[in-house]
């Protein structure tokens, strides 16, 4: 029997600085903002080779913010503008029991309770996510 070799996969992580994580309300397309087209071009070049986006802390994302994230990703990857998240895979991580949900419309809010159109669109995006993996136990250093 031959020896099995481990297969190596390399990833390049690009952390978005805190100042770029903020979303203004209401969402405004970058092409309509002052210096927006230049900023958008810069983002498109910077994230051109990104195919997977990991969003940590989904429990603190409102329905409206999820809609804004989707819209911005469609701007960054215009060749996939008609596809959710600009055609990129998105992984949402977090612990819904760790922090209080955002108000007034957390991702757990039922659609029939949402009156705001943008918040409703964000909730519909959340409902479209079909693959969910839940961890059944926690293992932290020092836990017995």
From TrEMBL:
The keyword Membrane applies. Its cofactor is Mg(2+). It comes from Phytophthora sojae (strain P6497). The chain crosses the membrane at residues 50-69. It comes from the Eukaryota. Pfam families: PIF1. Residues 42-139 form the DNA helicase Pif1-like DEAD-box helicase domain. This is ATP-dependent DNA helicase. Belongs to the helicase family. One of its GO terms (molecular function) is ATP hydrolysis activity. Keywords: ATP-binding, DNA damage, DNA recombination, DNA repair, Helicase, Hydrolase, Membrane, Nucleotide-binding, Transmembrane, Transmembrane helix. Its EC number is 5.6.2.3. It catalyses: ATP + H2O = ADP + phosphate + H(+). Coiled coil: none annotated. One of its GO terms (biological process) is DNA repair.
């Amino acid at each position: 029997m031959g020896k099995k070799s481990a297969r190596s996969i390399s990833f390049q992580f690009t952390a978005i600085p805190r100042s770029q994580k903020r979303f203004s309300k209401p969402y405004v397309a970058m092409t309509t903002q002052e210096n927006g087209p230049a900023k958008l071009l810069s983002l498109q070049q910077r994230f051109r080779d990104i195919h997977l986006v990991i969003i940590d802390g989904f429990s603190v994302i409102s329905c409206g913010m999820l809609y804004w994230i989707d819209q911005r990703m469609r701007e960054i990857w215009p060749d996939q503008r008609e596809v959710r998240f600009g055609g990129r895979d998105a992984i949402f991580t977090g612990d819904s029991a760790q922090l209080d949900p955002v108000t007034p419309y957390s991702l757990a809010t039922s659609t029939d309770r949402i009156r705001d159109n943008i918040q409703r669109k964000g909730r519909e995006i959340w409902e479209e996510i079909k693959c969910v993996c839940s961890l059944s136990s926690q293992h932290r250093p020092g836990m017995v």
